[in-house]
UniProtKB/TrEMBL annotation:
It is found in: Membrane. Keywords: Membrane. The keyword Nuclease does not apply. This is Band 7 domain-containing protein. It comes from the Eukaryota. It comes from Euphydryas editha.
Length: 306
């Protein structure tokens, strides 16, 4: 079986089917259909009239026929509602016919917009208000004009919906700690959804996460209790280390009694620096045994006022 189509040049398309049988016979079917891309008589007359108008009003018509688009812009031209061949125009100078040609400019620069704060219920049933910022650009001007009525408004609405859907699948702890992962997931979903429109989402950032006041107070109390618990643990660990150091110091002082006397004197020097009028300091009498050896039996140590 063979199938084919060809344009007859008169606004019609001829399609044919040929079926070859085993007996050697061939059956052919021919169907004539109107060509949807063919230009009708009215369109040809309107185009001719527009050319005639340009010639009559020359050179003033040049101001309406020649248009300029910037380096960051592209123009999509329609003639009597049909897209002109050649795709988009620009950058630079291009020609249009008055009365029959219309065009739309598309900006290729990156555009940013704020997603309004969205009231979102997280997976653990906590209500939060989240807003974001989205950066996008047009990569296919033709699709942005033909396939969507307003690519900017459509992208904004889709961004708000995507933000609610993505955050609804997360817990509050993940929402507060994994902002980068949430932004990347939202960018991927937006880019896939807007690709048929010729829009490329370059970046998505979560700006702010606003929690209820009661939840903020509860989280602050929890954080304060956690800090106090850690402070007590650190203080207890310090006491343990200090007791171990005192134990080692006592072992050194037992082996060398002179070190104990030096420690007494150092403590006395520290206390006297505070300008106290009376200091009760324990002073061992064994330190003066050389002076009191002839005065009788030794007296046990007792605190003396200094």
């Amino acid at each position: 079986m063979d199938f084919g189509c060809h344009d007859k040049g008169s606004g019609e398309v001829e399609c044919y089917f040929e079926i070859h049988c085993d007996t050697g016979t061939t059956c052919a079917i021919t169907i004539q259909m109107p060509n949807p891309h063919a230009v009708g008589c009215v369109e040809k007359f309107a185009t001719f009239f527009s050319f005639l108008l340009v010639i009559i009003t020359f050179p003033f018509s040049l101001f309406e026929c020649f248009k300029v688009v910037q380096e960051f812009e592209r123009a999509v031209i329609f003639r009597l509602g049909r897209l002109r061949k050649g795709g988009v125009r620009g950058p630079g100078l291009f020609f249009i016919l008055p009365c029959v040609d219309t065009y739309r400019k598309v900006d290729l620069r990156t555009v940013s917009f704020d997603v309004p704060p969205q009231e979102v219920l997280t997976r653990d049933s906590v209500t939060v208000a989240v807003d974001a910022v989205v950066y996008y650009r047009i990569k296919e001007p033709l699709n942005a004009v033909i396939r969507v009525a307003d690519y900017s408004a459509s992208t904004r609405l889709l961004a708000a919906t995507t933000l609610r859907n993505v955050l609804g699948m997360r817990d509050l702890a993940q929402l507060l700690s994994d902002r980068e992962a949430i932004s990347h997931m939202m960018q991927t979903n937006l880019d896939v959804a807007t690709d048929p429109w010729g829009v490329e989402v370059e970046r998505v950032e979560i700006k702010d996460v606003r929690l209820p006041v009661q939840l903020q107070r509860a989280m602050a109390a929890e954080a304060e209790a956690d800090r106090e618990a850690r402070a007590k643990i650190i203080a207890a660990e310090g006491e343990i280390k200090a007791s171990k150091a005192l134990r080692e110091a006592s072992l050194v002082m037992i082996d060398n009694p002179t070190a104990l006397q030096l420690r007494y004197l150092q403590s006395l020097n520290t206390i006297s620096a505070e300008k106290n009028s009376t200091i009760i300091f324990p002073f061992p009498m064994d330190f003066l045994k050389t002076f009191l050896s002839g005065a009788g039996p030794s007296i046990p140590p007792s605190p003396l006022p200094i």
